[in-house]
Amino acid sequence: MMVLEKQANFDAMELTARLGDRSIVFVGLMGAGKTAIGRKASQLLGLPFIDSDHEIEGISRMTIPELFDTYGETEFRALEQRVIERLLKTGPQVLSTGGGAFMNAETRRNVAERGVSVWLDADLDLLMHRVQKRPNRPLLRTPDPRAVMRKLMEERYPVYATAQIRVKTRDDKREIIAGEVLQELAGLLGAKPPASRGT
How far does CA 173 lie from the centroid of its chain? Predict the structure, then answer.
């Protein structure tokens, strides 16, 4: 067991060394698992984990739904862009972003300059199963949330597809999905993939 732990730490060190001061930036729709998978990836690499929505709520002292209701989506997106731009200057870290963040061209440019983008690609049924557990999603407060989600997928997936890494997420252990993300990251950066703790 000790050998496996040392090997995993060595791999994580190599990966973070190759990452430099860049951030690993998770993008995708609400319910894709950006926070859960991002937090697990940060633990595996020993990097800080930041959720941009939580940062926005801390700065504004308002919840995301309250910000939407008070200022509208356009103003919220402008604030989101500024917060993510600031966060990207403090890498390396693992950063989870809101579902609409990557739609902003300036944010995509900042992520490309200061990070590695990871799209968690989820199908409609999985997304709906997850978001129905949390009724505080501003864009889904509608009589037909499934239709809204389908429309968001049509609009956003072509943009998410420009991310450097794409991992198909599913109802599986977060350790497994996070491991797949890090294997893809290792391949992108030319590092050895993290050793499996189960073998």
Answer: 16
d(CA 122, CA 30): 10
Could you tell me if residue 193 is inside a domain?
no
**Residue 57 corresponds to which amino acid?**
E
Number of domains in the chain: 1
Q: Which residue has the tokens 């993939």?
A: 193
How many angstroms separate the CA atoms of 165 and 112, rounded? 12
**CATH code of the domain covering residue 51:** 3.40.50.300
Report pLDDT digits (tens) over 84-115: 999 999 999 999 999 999 999 999 999 999 99
Q: Name the H helices within 1-99.
A: 2-19, 34-45, 52-60, 64-87
Q: Are 152 and 139 in contact (CB under 8 A)?
A: yes
Instruction: Note if the pTM is more than 0.70.
Output: yes
Extract the tokens encoding 173. 């252990």
